[in-house]
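Chapter review: from sequence to fold.
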Amino acid sequence: MIEIKGPDQYQLRYDGERFAISSETGSSRFSGLAASKFPKLYVVSFDNEPIYVGITKQSLRNRLRLGWKADGANGYHGYAWRHIGNNATLNVWTHVNAIDRQSLDMETIEAEIVYLIRQQGQWPKFQTEIHFHESSEEHRALARQVIDHYQS
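The token string follows.
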């Protein structure tokens, strides 16, 4: 059974060069599970509309830093949405019982979330890649739980 905790919600303030976060508790740092090395799924949204879905095993700060500092070397240009607007909401779900930090389950859930978003009209506006894997009903149910967060 896949055990996922979340969402932990953060507000991102940013420009194309840097970002800052604030949590629901007022902290300016990622903490707890968002700072852990457990596999995480994160959804960036503008006005409660998911625009990007990603996964990472590193801390969220390190992952965001990578997306901000990318310059096209090795083909990675970073987060395109970092050049649009100046604030977004970041929700984080963490796979707390992952074996050896394996992220295949989270990658499968990520793809199912993106698929559910597509069924509502279009792909997430700034989604640039997705990896598809055979999914189980459990993966699909967890993806629906994440999407339900944006439909309430």
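Two observations follow directly from the output. The two ends are 26 Å apart (CA to CA). The chain has a mean pLDDT of 94.
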